[in-house]
């Protein structure tokens, strides 16, 4: 069996698992307790924060620990919207965001905010002129992803940052960095990012942990009420073992980023090149995208059918993003990229990790050929 | 094109007569210690100056490290070129490009011909170098009297040095060149700054910290150790004496004179610190007192408190405003630690209205009445733990395993 679903979740590093176990065993004190065990736990959290901050070249007090990307994105978008609604009630995002961003924006729309969902081109990138035209005096937030989770398309964040801040220096920029960290270089300062979301289990860390970077000086309205953890922004007892293990994963993934990008993008190029030669398949990913995601459609056949056929041969891929793959609707992202209903309903996502090899790719390609050959006679031609 | 050298100038230690040699040697030792992390860099000594040849080392991180060396007055990054007129002009132009002029800038060239066989005099050189610069950079305007920018050109036989930036160093006297004192180190903002100021004047400092379990927490003690470690970054290593103060402190609570508790406590601290000073061969005490800041730092209080010791009591911050102290503490890197919210023993048992003008005779009478006081002070000294810290030592107070296991991160 070969696992091709790293954009959904990754196998944790052995060191992460070991750390997690040791810390859980030794440090079960509540970091808010003021006795020795509490103090020790608090110390571990402080160190975790320093390590995460260092990995992003930011200050430790700019790191908020969360339960993952969904919480981070909700906290950033709703927190900023509630905090700054006296400045304005206009938000800009894109049509291809992850549901935790997209649906947060829809939610705010219901609450009376105005949201501009920017379209993307055929390769899945936003048009900068349209972005520039959308930024207004009352725009409080632009939320845009680094790497798209379904197709791997990469947004021009440097230009986005420059444009937005030129048009309105008070507009905050939130970047959903979940699929980018450890795969591509991250430049929070150059991007002029005010908020940046990460999830640990996408970078071989533990599930249930993540961070939200919040640039010093920016306030968010807290979504959870209770204790004063995370500087009052996120009430709830800290996940100590998770945070320590996450900081380890962040450090390791950050250190491996260059090697990852070089090695995995060569696998991706091979995959893309070979798929272009297979009749019946249509690519939705490009060589200028992220190194680890290849999205391909088999028009005329529901995505689930191809997925399960590949599974019979031991290849685990996914349809759309894991968070929405159980609904059998066409992919919103692919529709936004101008794909037909048919193409958008028949797409599978192959996402690679640093353990995948050239041999794996070879096997996958052969299996794909066999599966498509088997299904071809059954497909519904338009 | 990068800088080739750093030029370090010694400060007022150059004014000293017979001691100058010893002072310079100390600075050299410290500079050598800094250079250990920059293996390519080499130094050249000259009268009143020190040159560091970078050989490709990053000048910015080296400057950052050298700013911690006391006795260095200023630092200038230098470009070197062969002592030939066209090479000098070419380098001067490169230099200006590197500086990135912002708007109109007044400047002048100051040349010095150390190597007399060079065909052009210093005066001529000022013109020869200045005029092509004016032609190339339209933002530059000449000002002889008060230029914003002075390009210095030193022509020597082995090469010509060009520099214009003069970055302030730590200044002061070399480490330990003016004897030793005991610093009363609380966890606050002031005392670490007082320690740094003393060290800058060449005092060797040993820290004395008073703790009162269970009224103060383990974190308070660790915080002070962290503060001492920051100071160790300026001194190579630093000694800290941790004095158990609970018994002395609680002895004062039962006497029915709450408004004098701070006065009594501070006097006891000075006595213990003096005993430690005698033991360690230190000749003075240093405190972070700043006139009028709190009740124990009024003139009246300082009079009564200060009489508890017969050795000099140095108060480097006495006439500084709080804001100035805070700015300094940020510069030396102790501020963020100082503001961590752990109570130290100075803030414990603070009465509602502490005396700002205590009566010496009453204070002495109370002390006399507590017959066990001298024994308690001696016991506190005997039970004092002493640690020697460097800026990256790991201190383990509890004797248990290190809490933050490096393998976990």
pLDDT averaged over residues of chain A: 94
CATH architecture of the largest domain in chain A: 3-Layer(aba) Sandwich
Task: Tell me the β content of chain B.
Answer: 15-25%
**Which parts of chain A are unreliable, with pLDDT below 50 for 5 consecutive residues or more?**
none
User: What is the number of domains of chain B?
Assistant: 2
Name the CATH superfamily classification of the largest domain in chain A. Answer: Type I PLP-dependent aspartate aminotransferase-like (Major domain)
Fourth-tier CATH superfamily name of the largest domain in chain B: HUPs
**Oligomerization state:** heterodimer
Structural overview:
The complex is a heterodimer of chains A (382) and B (409). With 382 residues, chain A is of the alpha/beta class. Chain A folds into 2 domains: 2-8 and 257-375, Aspartate Aminotransferase, domain 1 (Alpha-Beta Complex); 14-252, Type I PLP-dependent aspartate aminotransferase-like (Major domain) (Aspartate Aminotransferase, domain 2, 3-Layer(aba) Sandwich), CATH 3.40.640. Helices cover 41% and strands 14% of the residues of chain A. Chain A contains 12 helices and 12 strands. Chain A has helices at 14-26, 36-56, 69-83, 99-110, 128-134, 157-167, 188-191, 240-276, 303-312, 332-336, 341-345, 358-375, and strands at 2-3, 63-66, 90-94, 114-118, 139-145, 172-176, 195-199, 210-214, 282-283, 293-297, 315-316, 347-351. A 7-stranded mixed sheet of chain A has the order 2-8-7-6-5-3-4, sandwiched between helices. A 3-stranded antiparallel sheet of chain A has the order 9-10-12. Chain A has a two-stranded parallel ribbon with strand order 1-11. Chain A is globular and about 70 Å long. The model of chain A has no long low-confidence stretch (mean pLDDT 94). With 409 residues, chain B is of the alpha/beta class. Chain B folds into 2 domains: 5-168, VC0802-like; 180-390, 3-Layer(aba) Sandwich (Rossmann fold). Chain B contains 13 helices and 15 strands. In chain B, β10, α5 and β11 form a beta-alpha-beta unit. Chain B is elongated, with a radius of gyration of 27 Å. The model of chain B has no long low-confidence stretch (mean pLDDT 89). At the A-B interface, α1, α2 and α8 of A face loops of B.
């Amino acid at each position: 069996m070969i696992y091709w679903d790293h954009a959904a979740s990754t196998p944790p590093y052995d060191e992460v698992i070991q750390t997690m176990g040791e810390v859980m065993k030794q440090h079960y004190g509540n970091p808010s307790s003021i006795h020795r065990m509490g103090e020790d736990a608090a110390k571990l959290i402080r160190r975790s924060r320093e390590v995460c901050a260092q990995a992003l070249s930011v200050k430790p007090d700019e790191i908020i620990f969360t339960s993952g990307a969904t919480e981070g994105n909700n906290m950033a978008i709703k927190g900023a919207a509630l905090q700054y609604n006296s400045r304005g009630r206009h938000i800009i995002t894109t049509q291809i965001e992850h549901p935790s961003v997209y649906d947060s924006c829809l939610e705010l729309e219901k609450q009376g905010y105005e949201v501009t969902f920017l379209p993307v081109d055929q390769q899945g990138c936003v048009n900068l002129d349209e972005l520039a035209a959308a930024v207004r005096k009352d725009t409080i937030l632009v939320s845009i992803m680094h790497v798209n989770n379904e197709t791997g398309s990469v947004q021009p964040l440097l230009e986005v940052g420059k444009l937005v801040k030129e048009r309105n220096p008070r507009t905050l920029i939130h970047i959903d960095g979940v699929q980018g960290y450890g795969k591509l270089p991250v430049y929070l300062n150059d991007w002029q990012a005010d908020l940046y979301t990460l999830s640990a289990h996408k970078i071989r860390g533990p599930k249930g942990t993540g961070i939200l970077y919040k640039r010093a000086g920016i306030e968010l309205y807290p979504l959870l009420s209770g204790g004063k953890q995370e500087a009052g922004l996120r009430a709830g007892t800290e996940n100590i073992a998770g945070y320590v293990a996450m900081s380890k994963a962040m450090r390791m993934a950050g250190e491996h980023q260059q090697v990852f990008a070089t090695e995995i993008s060569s696998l991706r190029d091979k995959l893309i090149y070979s798929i272009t030669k297979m009749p019946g398949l249509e690519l939705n990913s490009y060589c200028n995208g992220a190194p680890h995601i290849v999205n391909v459609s088999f028009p005329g056949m529901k995505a689930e059918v191809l997925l399960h056929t590949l599974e019979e041969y031991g290849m685990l891929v996914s349809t759309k993003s894991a968070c929405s793959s159980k609904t059998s609707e066409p992919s919103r992202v692919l529709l936004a990229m101008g794909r037909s209903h048919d193409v958008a309903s028949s797409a599978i996502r192959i996402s690679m990790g640093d353990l995948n090899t050239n041999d794996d790719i070879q096997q996958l390609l052969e299996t794909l050929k066999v599966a498509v050959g088997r299904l071809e006679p059954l497909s519904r031609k338009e | 094109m990068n800088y080739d050298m750093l030029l370090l100038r010694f400060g007022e230690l150059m004014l000293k007569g017979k001691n100058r040699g010893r002072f310079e040697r100390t600075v050299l030792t410290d500079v050598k210690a800094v250079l250990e992390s920059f293996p390519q860099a080499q130094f050249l000594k000259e009268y009143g100056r020190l040159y560091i040849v970078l050989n490709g080392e990053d000048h910015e991180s080296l400057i950052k490290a050298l700013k911690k060396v006391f006795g260095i007055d200023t630092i200038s990054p230098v470009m070197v070129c062969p002592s030939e007129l066209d090479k000098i002009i070419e380098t001067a132009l490169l230099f200006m490009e590197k500086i990135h002029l912002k708007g109109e800038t007044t400047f002048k060239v100051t040349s010095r011909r150390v190597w007399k066989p060079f065909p052009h005099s210093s005066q001529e050189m000022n013109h020869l170098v200045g005029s092509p610069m004016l032609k190339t950079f339209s933002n530059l305007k000449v000002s002889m009297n008060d230029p914003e920018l002075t390009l210095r050109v030193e022509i020597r036989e082995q090469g010509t040095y060009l520099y214009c930036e003069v970055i302030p160093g730590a200044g002061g006297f070399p480490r330990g060149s003016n004897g030793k004192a005991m610093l009363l180190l609380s966890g606050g903002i002031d005392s670490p700054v007082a320690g740094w100021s003393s060290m800058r004047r060449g005092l060797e400092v040993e820290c004395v910290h008073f703790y009162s379990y269970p009224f103060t927490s383990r974190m308070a003690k660790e915080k002070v150790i962290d503060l001492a470690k920051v100071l160790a970054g300026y001194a190579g290593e630093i000694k800290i004496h941790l004095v158990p103060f609970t018994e002395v402190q609680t002895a004062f609570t039962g006497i029915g004179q709450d408004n004098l508790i701070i006065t009594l406590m501070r006097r006891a601290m000075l006595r213990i610190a003096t005993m430690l000073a005698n033991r360690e061969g230190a000749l003075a005490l240093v405190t972070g007192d700043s006139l009028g800041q709190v009740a124990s730092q009024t003139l009246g209080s300082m009079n009564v408190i200060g009489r508890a010791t017969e050795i000099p009591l140095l108060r480097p911050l006495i006439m500084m405003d709080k804001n100035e102290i805070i700015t300094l503490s940020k510069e030396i890197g102790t501020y963020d630690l100082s503001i961590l919210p752990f109570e130290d023993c100075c803030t414990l048992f603070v009465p509602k209205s502490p005396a700002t003008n205590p009566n010496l005779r009453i204070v002495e009478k109370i002390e006399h009445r507590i017959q066990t006081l001298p024994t308690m002070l001696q016991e506190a000294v005997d039970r004092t733990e002493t640690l020697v810290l460097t800026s990256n030592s790991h201190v383990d107070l509890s004797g248990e395993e290190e809490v933050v296991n490096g393998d976990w991160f």
